[in-house]
Design goal:
By secondary structure, the chain is α/β, with parallel strands linked by helices. It is 23% helix and 21% strand.
């Protein structure tokens, strides 16, 4: 989300992107692609980038498990409009096609899905791919507390009291977090505020189980959806998934 202000895009020299998930990473990469002279800074409140594309690792680093987004499932229209992104990601080995069974996957009769993809190094590698392309300076453990337009520059303050100035700010974190920023009310109108406050998110919890090397679970599927249980909705054998 970008807050509408009277800053001409051609005069921007320093851009702050808040949120180091996929949206923030792709936004940063696209800005750098079009405006190579931009200085891009990226903040995230977490200890690491990824957002909802987070990959857990064992202490030794040999075991991986996605605990956010599990796989990429582009619909036909996005495969066409975003073709260059999928081409780049597959050519560079960040994504590979999934050929294994995903049991219980629902189809949408109105939208054709061409191919599912998996990230061999975890879905967080997709975010890191675009962060690398952006050349942005990444600062984790940075929570945006307040923002204020001062002399046509954005004064931003972290929860720790650190103050910096930027020519433009792009907010890519979840809407409830945006609405908690001190001063945000000054830069959105009544209708925008009402629509933003109506946005709701449902909670999802993930658990990763790591087994000894060589363990054979003998599952007839790579992943499976469950629709009749009170808690479990999805189970995936990550080591099988990463092979496609």
């Amino acid at each position: 989300m970008s807050v509408p202000v009277s800053v001409t895009i051609n005069t921007v020299e320093k851009l702050l992107v808040v949120g180091a998930g996929l949206t923030g990473a792709v936004t940063s990469a696209l800005v750098k692609e079009k405006l190579v002279d931009f200085s891009i800074t990226l903040w995230d409140k977490a200890n690491f980038p990824g957002g909802r594309m987070t990959t857990a690792r064992t202490p030794c680093g040999r075991g991986l498990a996605d605990i956010g987004a599990q796989y990429i499932s582009p619909m036909n229209k996005y495969c066409i409009s975003h073709r260059r992104f999928y081409d780049d990601l597959t050519v560079d080995g960040v994504l590979v096609p999934i050929n294994n069974v995903i049991e219980g996957e629902k189809s949408n009769n109105e939208v054709t899905k061409i191919q599912n993809y998996t990230a061999p190094n975890g879905t967080s590698s997709i975010v890191k791919y675009f962060l690398t392309k952006s050349g942005a300076q990444l600062f984790c453990n940075h929570t945006l507390q307040s923002l204020k337009l001062v002399d046509n520059r954005w004064q931003v303050t972290t929860a720790d009291g650190e103050v910096e100035y930027f020519s433009a700010v792009a907010l890519t974190m979840p809407v409830p977090q945006i609405m908690q920023i001190h001063g945000i009310d000054q830069y959105i109108n009544v209708d925008q505020k009402r629509l933003l406050e109506e946005v709701e998110y449902s909670s999802r919890f993930a658990m990763a189980l790591f087994f000894e090397q060589g363990a054979n679970l003998s599952l007839p599927w790579m992943a499976k959806y469950f629709f009749d249980g009170p808690c479990i909705r999805f189970v995936c054998a990550d080591n099988v998934k990463r092979k496609g």
